[in-house]
Amino acid sequence: MKPNQSFGSIVVCMGSSCYARGNIYTVEHIQSWLARHGLSASVELSGSLCGGRCKEGPVIIINGKVYTNVMPETIEDILVHEFEKAGDPELVQPDSTCSNTSAGDSWRVDP
Ligand code: FES
């Protein structure tokens, strides 16, 4: 990985519905996962206001793809799915110290 190389962006909906339904915790998981995998400086993490998809929430947009029904328990699977393609696969393997990897695929992505 080159210094200052960008691997993309994550936008976490912090509107009241998504926030209350889990994104308050999911954003902490994202920050922790990025730090553990050395990607904090390479992935832009930001919050957004409600995007009008509350019924499908919690919503997170990663590299332009809209993920719906994202829960703190499933965010690691999504991060691995998105960032294993960015290079440095050894950095983004599922973390065996995290208990969230067996939560299954309850989230969806809208292309
Ligand atoms: S609060 Fe997230 S889409 Fe409305």
What does this structure look like?
The model is unreliable at 95-105 (pLDDT under 50). A hairpin with a 2-residue loop joins strand 3 and strand 4. The protein is of the alpha+beta class and 111 residues long. The chain is built from two helices and five strands; from the N terminus they run E-H-E-E-E-H-E. The protein is globular, with a radius of gyration of 13 Å. Helix content is 27%, strand content 20%. The chain has a single domain (8-110), classed as Glutaredoxin (3-Layer(aba) Sandwich), CATH 3.40.30.10. Residues 13, 15-18, 50-54, 57, 59 line the site of FE2/S2 (inorganic) cluster.
Can you tag this structure with a few keywords?
binds FE2/S2 (inorganic) cluster; alpha+beta; 111 residues; Glutaredoxin; 2 helices; 5 strands
